[in-house]
Amino acid sequence: MDSGTVAAVVIVGLLGAWGVWFAARALAIRRRLQGDRVVTCPETGQPAIVHIDLALAVTSTAGSAPAPLEACSRWAARGQCDQPCVCAAHLPASSASALVKAWAKDRTCTTCGGELVEHPLVGHHIALFEPGGITREWVDVAGERLPLALATCLPLCWNCHQAASFRRLYPELVVDRDDLTVHTDLPT
């Protein structure tokens, strides 16, 4: 190979390596910052759901200011603001899933006493048992209401939530028995 070909191969290799690095960095940033972020609005003192501008977060240089917000639940009523909560929105603890995970830590299911486990890939989320007796998965709670729901609801595992939902929706199909006995003398 002549020196021009070697130089071209080196340049293509370096560009490929940079492309892989950039793609890996973009995926890591997206995974870390995507989704609902629950912050306290400094102007109102109320919970707000914000979304970080992921395109700007990915393309910003390391060490620069945090990427701005793309959306806020308060903007519809109040209009855009100076985004004083942007630093809080970038904290890992501000994601809705992190709030629920911290809330569920060291707790067990109110009904069965089992472990509270999230399986978001298959759609199984920790549920909340509301004071009125209704159960719902935390992802079905409006973001602005999530902090209040976590303060007033009891934890429920996904299996018990499914059983309670079935019981509520189809009460005519449910039979409760306190004296359930297993009969081993039944003919086969």
Topology, number of strands: 6
Largest sheet: 3 strands, antiparallel
Order of helices and strands: HEEHEHHHEEHEH
* Mean pLDDT over all positions: 86
Shape: flat
Would you identify the regions where 5 or more consecutive residues have pLDDT less than 50?
none
Strand order of the largest sheet: 1-2-3
Write down the Rg. 25 Å
Number of helices: 7
Share in β-strands = 5-15%
Tally of individual domains: 2
Q: How far is the first residue's CA from the last residue's CA?
A: 81 Å
Give a short summary of the structure.
The protein is α+β, with helices and mostly antiparallel strands and 188 residues long.
What does this 3D model show about the protein?
Strand 1 (37-40) and strand 2 form a beta hairpin. The strands form 2 sheets. Strands 1-2-3 form a 3-stranded antiparallel β-sheet. Strands 5-4-6 form a 3-stranded antiparallel β-sheet. The model has no long low-confidence stretch (mean pLDDT 86). 18% of the residues are buried. The protein is built from 7 helices and 6 strands. It has helices spanning 3-33, 54-59, 75-78, 86-89, 96-104, 146-152, 158-169, and strands at residues 37-40, 47-52, 69-72, 127-129, 135-137, 154-156.
